[in-house]
């Protein structure tokens, strides 16, 4: 029996092909699903839903340009709910291709079709935040809250736009009222609590701020099933395994002529990595890549379990991983430029980085240990990062990180630069000059103009980095001496 779909009548044989394609997609056979959808579209090129589903599979395969083309074809054939297609194109432009202007255009197209389309409004607010457009983000969040006044996640995100003043004080009351609501899910309590803690800290109510952050971390722990826990012994074992990992000679070629060249920026979260990247992004030869998932994804799919699989990996496998990494960079940066890979926890992979990219330079961002741990305590990280949910566990993780970095320095010290946040805010010009010299680049004044520079910043530091260099975050832990006394003693016991 024939079926009408988006104005196209599909014969039974084609419907069977579609079911095979859907089954392939459901079992994760992305390549098979793409091939089957192409077969359907070869005989029914006006089948809009087919183009939409093909685009979805191409996006999963990382073929983003092809996905954009397929989405565009779906739109040309009057696909149902075209605002959703524009939204999907916006996400590709924003997240995969780092083209915020194109993403904005797609979101505007979606909202022209449906002005109250919440997913597009939510993505627009995020994009406006990334671009530093505080007033625009505020208006968008206020529109969202008109549509969804009880949405705790929207209220928490809206509160991130304020720090002090009457509006911030009103938001403290509003957040506390939302937290007092009965039957509030843990994920909502976590988001509201972190937003409240940040406002209380900005207003100088430090005791209440720390208590709010502690409660938010407990809610974050309870927001996943089973509740997130940090395994100290497992982290120590991982650190031992990384330290005992035998160094390998260069297994892969360097970048070919015209390929982007990576600069790795890593360290603890909240140690100044976003600031380092924004300084470098001001240089004419550097493109900011942001927190790339490229290397962790390749490790998970090509070198698992890591680090055990690294020792037995063939030269060909390592060369393949390096080639795939370069392929990912080509989507982000113009030919021949440098591109930053600012994934903080890549510090775990420095041994692999030096095997894959022997000439790679690594910018290791550092900051006062107490300030780092305190900032993590106030940060709403993924609850699966269990070490962030308890200040004592954060300290333990920090000690393992410090132990591992000492090992990497002993092996690759000439290619690792410790770039200290506190030194930078004290002497920005000389520290930036030292950074550029390490990378073999000439001084450019534009490196220090990052706070006024257009462009996207896609991390929790989006607003801080746009305020320029300021010293108030250095030594922030002094406001929390009673709460951090045990942590300070633990950090002092191990060098």
What helical percentage do the residues reach? Answer: 55-70%
How does the helix and strand content classify structurally? alpha/beta
CATH domain fold name of the domain at 234-493: Rossmann fold
Q: What is the architecture of the domain at 234-493 at the second tier of CATH?
A: 3-Layer(aba) Sandwich
- Residue-averaged pLDDT, rounded? 91
Shape annotation: globular
Low-confidence stretches: 1-5
Strand portion, in percent? 5-15%
- Describe the biggest sheet? 5 strands, parallel
How do the strands of the widest beta sheet line up side by side? Answer: 4-5-3-6-7
> Can you count the helices?
24
CATH homologous superfamily identity of the domain at 234-493: P-loop containing nucleotide triphosphate hydrolases
Count the beta strands. Answer: 7
Distance between the termini: 75 Å
**Alpha carbon gyration radius:** 24 Å
What does the model show?
The protein is an alpha/beta fold and 495 residues long. Helices cover 59% and strands 6% of the residues. Among the domains are: 150-227, no CATH class; 234-493, P-loop containing nucleotide triphosphate hydrolases (Rossmann fold, 3-Layer(aba) Sandwich), CATH 3.40.50. The chain has helices at 12-26, 30-43, 48-60, 64-76, 82-96, 100-113, 118-130, 134-147, 152-159, 166-179, 186-202, 206-222, 232-243, 273-281, 294-302, 308-312, 315-330, 350-356, 369-377, 391-412, 421-426, 428-438, 462-465, 481-493; strands spanning 3-5, 8-10, 261-267, 286-288, 338-341, 361-366, 416-420. Strands 4-5-3-6-7 form a 5-stranded parallel β-sheet, sandwiched between helices. Strands 1-2 form a two-stranded antiparallel sheet. Helix 7 (118-130) packs antiparallel against helix 8 (134-147) and helix 9 (152-159) runs antiparallel to helix 10.
């Amino acid at each position: 029996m024939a079926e009408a779909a988006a104005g196209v009548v599909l014969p039974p044989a084609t419907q069977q092909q579609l079911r095979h394609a859907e089954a392939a997609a459901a079992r994760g056979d992305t390549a098979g699903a793409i091939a089957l959808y192409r077969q359907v579209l070869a005989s029914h090129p006006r089948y809009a839903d087919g183009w939409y589903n093909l685009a979805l599979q191409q996006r999963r395969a990382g073929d983003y340009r092809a996905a954009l083309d397929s989405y565009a074809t779906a739109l040309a054939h009057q696909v149902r709910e075209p605002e959703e297609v524009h939204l999907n194109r916006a996400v590709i432009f924003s997240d995969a291709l780092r083209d915020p202007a194109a993403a904005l255009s797609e979101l505007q197209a979606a909202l022209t079709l449906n002005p109250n389309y919440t997913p597009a409004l939510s993505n627009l607010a995020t994009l406006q935040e990334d671009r530093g457009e505080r007033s625009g983000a505020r208006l968008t969040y206020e529109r969202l809250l008109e549509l969804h006044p009880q949405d705790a996640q929207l209220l928490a995100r809206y509160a991130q736009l304020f720090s002090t003043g009457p509006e911030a004080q009103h938001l403290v009351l509003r957040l506390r009222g939302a937290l007092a609501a009965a039957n509030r899910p843990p994920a909502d309590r976590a988001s509201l609590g972190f937003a409240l803690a940040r406002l209380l800290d900005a207003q100088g109510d430090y005791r209440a701020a720390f208590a709010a952050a502690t409660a938010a971390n407990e809610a974050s722990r309870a927001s996943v099933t089973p509740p997130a826990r940090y395994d100290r012994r497992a982290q120590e074992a991982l650190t031992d395994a990384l330290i005992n990992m035998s160094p390998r000679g260069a297994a892969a070629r360097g970048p070919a002529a015209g390929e982007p060249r990576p600069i790795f920026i890593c360290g603890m979260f909240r140690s100044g990595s976003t600031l380092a990247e924004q300084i470098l992004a001001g240089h004419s030869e550097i493109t900011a890549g942001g927190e790339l998932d490229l290397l962790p994804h390749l490790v998970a799919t090509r070198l698992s379990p890591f680090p055990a699989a690294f020792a037995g990996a063939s030269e060909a496998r390592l060369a393949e991983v390096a080639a795939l990494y370069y392929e990912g960079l080509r989507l982000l940066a113009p030919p021949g430029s440098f591109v930053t890979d600012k994934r903080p926890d890549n510090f775990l992979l420095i041994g692999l980085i030096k095997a894959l990219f022997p000439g790679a330079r690594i910018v290791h961002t550092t900051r006062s240990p107490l300030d780092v741990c305190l900032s993590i305590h106030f940060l709403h990280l993924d609850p699966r990062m269990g070490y962030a949910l308890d200040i004592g566990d954060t300290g333990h993780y920090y000690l393992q990180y410090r132990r591992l970095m000492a090992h990497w320095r002993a092996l690759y010290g000439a290619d690792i630069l410790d770039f200290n946040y506190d030194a930078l805010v004290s002497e920005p010009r000389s520290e930036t000059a030292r950074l550029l010299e390490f990378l073999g680049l000439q001084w450019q004044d534009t490196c220090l103009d990052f706070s006024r520079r257009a462009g996207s910043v896609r991390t929790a530091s989006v607003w801080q980095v746009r305020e320029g260099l300021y010293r108030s975050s250095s030594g922030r832990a002094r406001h929390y001496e009673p709460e951090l006394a045990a942590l300070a003693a633990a950090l002092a016991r191990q060098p």
